[in-house]
Structure formats: C-alpha cells, structure tokens
Amino acid sequence: KTCNESLNQIIVMYCTLRLPLPFHIPRTRTTLSCKPKRRRVEHLRCRCAQSSEEEATDDNSVRVEGVVSIVVERYGNGTSKRYLLDDDDSPLQGFLEEREPKPDTNSNSSETNTVWVPDVVKDFVFPTGFPGSVSDDYLDYMLWQFPTNVTGWMCNAVGVGSFSGSSPAATAAASAAAIRWVSKDGIGALGRLLIGGRFGSLFDDDPKQWRMYADFIGSAGSFFDLATQLYPSQFLLLASTGNLAKAVARGLRDPSFRVIQNHFAISGNLGEVAAKEEVWEVGAQLIGLGLGILIIDTPGLVKSFPFVSLTWTSIRLVHLWLRYQSLAVLRFDTINLKRARILIQSHVMHSVVPGYVECNKRENILVWQRFMKPRIIFGVSLEEVSGLEKSVFKVKALLKIYTKEKYILTLNKLNKDTEFSVSFKVNATSRDVLRCLWQAYWLYENMEESLKNKDSVFHWLKQSLSEMENKFDDFLFKLDTAGWNLGESNLKIPNHILIDLESIPL
C-alpha cells in the first residue's frame, strides 16, 4: 500500500520535459492510466495531473512516438536546413544552419587553392562539381590563360586608337572613336560573361536547342546593326545592343557546337574534327562573302534601304531554316531529358522503346522543358512538397512511401493540368531521374481513372511505384537492345538542394 501511494504521488507530480533534441520516452505501465505528454521543440512545461479522469481525456488527443525523425536539406552553397518531423498537427518548420567548409588534407591542389573563394564566385567561374569534374591541370591552365587574354585585348584596344594622325584634333577625334568602339565591344563581352558564368551547365544536356537559340539571338543582333543606317545619331546605342545580342549568341553557340563536335569524334579525334570543321567554315565564308559582294554591287541597291532590308530578311530566314535542318539530322545515342520523355512515354503507353534514330527525329529542338507536358519540376524543397498547409503528416507519409527510392515525387492538380514536383535525396543518380520520370508519366496517363475512382493521392503514388518496380527493368532492357548508350547520360541531378535523412523515419 505504501508503495502504491508513493507511486501515485510520483505520477501526480510527473512533469514532462520537452527537449529540442531527438529523445526516446519509454511507456510506463502503472495502475493508473497515465501517458507522458508528447514532446515539442523549444518549450519547457510542467503539468500536474489532477485526476485520472482528466488524464484519460487528454490521452485521446495525444499520440506518443518513440523516435523523432529529422530530415535535412543540404544546399549547394554548404548550408543546410533541418526539419523536425515530430508533431503531425503542427506546421512544417525548418531551422537554417550555416556550415563553414573545412579544407580537406586529402583533397587535390585545385580544391585546396580555391578554399578561400566564395561559393557564388566558384559557381560562376568553375564548372559544376569542380574540382572533381575536371582534370587536375584545369586550374593551372586557366590561371595562365587569364592574363594571356588580358594582354591580348590590351593590344587590341591600343591598336584601335593608334596611328590616327599627328594633329591634336585628329588625335582627339580618333581617340573618341576608339573609346566608343572599345566600349561597344566591352558591352558585348558582358553578354558572353553572363552566359558562360550563369548558364554554362545547360549546353551538355541539349546542345541542339541552344545552338538554334544562338542563331535566333544573333539574328536580332544583326538587325540592330542594320538599324544604325536609319538612326546614325543612335549609333552607339544600337551598335552596343547589337554587339550584346551577338555576344550572347556567341556564348551560346561556341559551347553548344563543342558538344556537337565531341559527338562527332567517336575515335577520340576531336582536334582533327575541329580542324576539318574550320575548312568547311572558311570555304562557306568565302562563297558567302563573294555572293554578298555581288548583291551589294548591284546598281541602285545600296541606296534603297527597304530593298536592302528585304534582301537581308529573306537571306536570314533561309539561314535559320538551314540551321534547323542541320541540327535535325543529328543522332545522339545518349539520353537527355527530352529524349527520356519520349522513350518513357512510349514505354508507358505501348511497352515499346524507339531507337535513337527515330527518337532524335521526334525530338522537338525548339520547345523548352517548362512547356512540355506533363510539367515536371526538379529539385524542389520539403516546404514545397508539404503544400500550402505545410503539413508534417504529408511529409512523413511521403518519406514512408519513398523509403526505398532516392527521390520523392508528388503531384498537384491545377485547373486543367497536372504538375509534378521531384525532390532528390543524397546520392541520387541519373537512374533515379529515369525512375521518377517513368512514375510521373504513368500517373499522367492514368489521371482520368484516378479522378473517376476518387482515390487518395497517396494510393495512386503507391500504385505508380508498384507499376514502375514491375516494368522498369523491362524498360532498361529495351533501351539496351534499341542501341542506346547507357554508359553515358545527360540526366543531371540538381545539386542546389538535396534531402538527407539523418534518423530512422517512422
């Protein structure tokens, strides 16, 4: 009896300590029905039980879980955000954590030499994944190449303003003209700087698209140059805008064509392929210049600006059509996002996989990924996955569904369309991109049936995962037999945000 009274007294005075760390609270069986309150973050509370009746009432609204799940989002700049998935009823909250990069004594010299460089500068100047994505001599070469280019452009700028005459008036006029010309070229160079630094990772995925866009933008730049004849007083503005557009076009053209050249060099003879391409280019240049001279030497043509504009527009349209045809005949046997969509849609709907020749013919060079159906957004955060209500329950349910996968796919029903969002986990690969694409296309093709049955979203996510598990190996087998190169892939994992599970979920 004395022991029971002491035990009851302890239970009455029981206080729940709420800790901000993962903590396991064991259940205690007693003669009274009493369960400890659930833990919450950043609160310290004590509650005294007045009676077993009040305790039982409170038990109906409290669920005790022994293990707290922690999910971490890791960002490309080294920071991370930690989520505590403990309370299903509370909104999802994240705690941002700064993480200072520490030099690794075992890392190569390139990584050691760039530890002090801010991440923003690294992302702008170096290739994605630097230094692991390039050879060891890359940084040394670029450090010598940079001052080499500086001195070369110094000579170019000085040469423009030199040999302009001996009189002060002639020298001043020539210097002003030189400054205007160098300024025009400098503005154009900013376009190349922006393209190379901001969009450098795009060209490997879809060189045909960006090579075509380069010609569109370059045509706009030539139009501004042509307009200088109409507005000579605005020469600097129009010429600078034209140079900027043509520089952006060059920034898109050169990297894209290098990828195409690498595609041609199947024997490792990239240098020879590039040299022979110059032969074709120079031959075409000489013929084009000769025909152009014949046109402008036509009597009365140069004085008629409307006729010149019409002739230029006609030739430019033919040029763009020929460019499209030249890119359409390319046959890549590697899988990028556009070709993956074509392959997966064919397998989901008809259980067949087209060969790379047919797939390249069906590939739309001009369309952007964001305008393709279904719309799939890669690299979303957990807050976006949780929805507008920031539901912890939804995040936990999705983590449980995708326990065996390296990604989390969700769907949002819009007005007349469906949008898919994909979050990738740490160590995800291009194979996981194919898996989530297959699942998304199966859901998209079976969306009408899901709306008729009015089943829950979680049910259809599980169903689509099951279908993907049963048929994905067949998809890979048919890719191999159709002649696709599975050893190389241009399906990249967005490294700006990845999910890391630090504890055992639910």
Describe the model.
The protein is of the alpha+beta class and 506 residues long. It folds into three domains: 1-66, no CATH class; 120-328, Growth Hormone, Chain: A, CATH 1.20.1250; 337-501, no CATH class. It is 54% helix and 8% strand. It has helices at residues 2-12, 52-59, 109-113, 119-125, 138-161, 168-198, 207-227, 235-264, 270-296, 305-328, 337-350, 356-362, 382-385, 392-401, 430-445, 447-453, 457-481; strands spanning 69-75, 80-85, 94-97, 375-378, 407-413, 418-424, 497-501. The strands form two sheets. A four-stranded antiparallel sheet has the order 3-2-1-7, with helices on one face. α11 crosses α15 (430-445) and α15 packs across α17. The longest helix has 31 residues, at 168-198. The chain is globular and about 80 Å long. Residues 6-68, 102-107 and 160-167 have low confidence and may be disordered.
Quick description:
With 506 residues, the chain is an alpha+beta fold. The protein is built from 17 helices and seven strands. The chain folds into three domains: 66 residues, no CATH class; 209 residues, Growth Hormone, Chain: A; 165 residues, no CATH class.
**Strand arrangement across the biggest beta sheet:** 3-2-1-7
- What class, by secondary structure content? alpha+beta
Rg: 32 Å
Mean pLDDT: 74
Pick out the low-confidence regions.
Answer: 6-68, 102-107, 160-167
CATH class of the largest domain, named Mainly Alpha
Helix fraction?
Answer: 40-55%
Tell me the CATH topology of the largest domain: Growth Hormone, Chain: A
Straight-line N-to-C gap: 40 Å
Tell me the number of structural domains: 3
Can you summarize the main beta sheet?
4 strands, antiparallel
Pfam family, one: UVB_sens_C
Protein name: Protein root UVB sensitive 5
InterPro entries: RUS_fam (IPR006968), UVB_sens_C (IPR055412), UVB_sens_RUS_dom (IPR054549)
Family: Belongs to the RUS1 family.
